[in-house]
């Protein structure tokens, strides 16, 4: 899949640094995601993939570096220890609400029905009226094949169904970019396909997506770009064809062969 090379940059990340204590986890990561890009983020366990996504939606604050969404740069101020912190909490909330996050562990609200999970954010954050929010939620549930489960509680759904609802819930907030952190890693193998199919349909719609995954089929055939992290640095970054076709590094070859 190819995106238009002249498409505007939706998410721009420059030189992200992050340490936990004296453990330097991210050592200068940069990435420009253009509108419609589907970027797979690959790397061994502990290479910093989740920390990178968490720095983008500001669940973690990058110690250094910048994050811009749709041309708006997150304002940072320096602390005395030289690290930075967001200068404007309202801006953080605004930027975060435009990044849809899907986690490994579904994270649906267990005391709410499927439908209520979908309309909660639109009602409270986007200030939609109920009829509008319900109408859109039903459309999104149909899109992920969950329309007939609108009255169910999460505990009564399979992992694959919960993850499809979690994707629909993220979409209900009209995100500019969708971030996925190993969305299929907690699923029984027979449930992985239904979630990957939904993700593929979002890619085909032209949504901008960053996907941390160990699914090599998705990385190779659905995403148009691949970023391979090693110990907090970008080891490879290119089109899927480049990264998989040339298999430039021995490290990447080994990574791929251990995930077949
Ligand atoms: P990945 O998602 O690629 O497996 P992570 O981003 O979760 O990697 O973690 C990268 C490194 O950062 C690991 O060594 C992990 O133990 C460490 N780390 C992640 N989050 C924290 C945290 N909140 N506190 C301390 N160390 C952390
Ligand atoms: Mg992780």
Automatic annotation (TrEMBL):
Topology of the protein relative to the lipid bilayer: Peripheral membrane protein
Stretches assigned to the ABC transporter domain: 11-256
Keyword Metal-binding: no
Keyword Transcription regulation: no
Main subcellular location: membrane
MF-aspect GO terms: ABC-type amino acid transporter activity; ATP binding; ATP hydrolysis activity
Transmembrane segments: none
Superkingdom of the organism of origin: Bacteria
UniProt-annotated location(s): Cell membrane
CC per GO annotation: plasma membrane
Keywords: ATP-binding, Cell inner membrane, Cell membrane, Membrane, Nucleotide-binding, Transport
PANTHER family (UniProt xref): AMINO ACID IMPORT ATP-BINDING PROTEIN, L-CYSTINE IMPORT ATP-BINDING PROTEIN TCYN
Recorded family membership: Belongs to the ABC transporter superfamily.
Protein name as catalogued: ATP-binding cassette domain-containing protein
């Amino acid at each position: 899949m190819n995106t238009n090379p002249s498409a505007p940059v939706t998410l721009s990340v420059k030189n992200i640094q992050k340490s936990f204590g004296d453990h330097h986890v991210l050592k200068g990561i940069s990435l420009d995601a253009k509108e419609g890009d589907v970027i797979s983020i690959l790397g061994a366990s502990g290479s910093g993939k989740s920390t990178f996504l968490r720095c983008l939606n500001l669940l973690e604050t990058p110690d250094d570096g910048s994050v811009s969404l749709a041309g708006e740069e997150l304002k940072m101020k320096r602390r005395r220890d030289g690290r930075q912190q967001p200068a404007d909490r309202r801006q953080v909330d605004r930027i975060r609400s435009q990044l849809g996050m899907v986690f490994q562990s579904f994270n649906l609200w267990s005391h709410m029905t499927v439908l209520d999970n979908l309309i909660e954010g639109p009602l409270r954050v986007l200030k939609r009226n109920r009829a509008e929010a319900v109408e859109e939620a039903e459309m999104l549930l149909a899109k992920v094949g969950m329309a007939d489960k609108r009255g169910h509680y999460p505990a009564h759904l399979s992992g694959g169904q919960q993850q499809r609802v979690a994707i629909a819930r993220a979409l209900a907030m009209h995100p500019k970019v969708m971030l996925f952190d190993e969305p299929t890693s907690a699923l029984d193998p027979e449930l992985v396909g239904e979630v990957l199919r939904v993700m593929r349909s979002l890619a085909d719609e032209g949504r901008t997506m960053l996907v941390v995954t160990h699914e090599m089929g998705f990385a190779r055939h659905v995403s148009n770009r691949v970023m391979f992290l090693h110990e907090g640095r970008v080891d490879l970054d290119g089109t899927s064809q480049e990264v998989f076709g040339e298999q430039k590094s021995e490290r990447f070859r080994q990574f791929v062969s251990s995930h077949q």
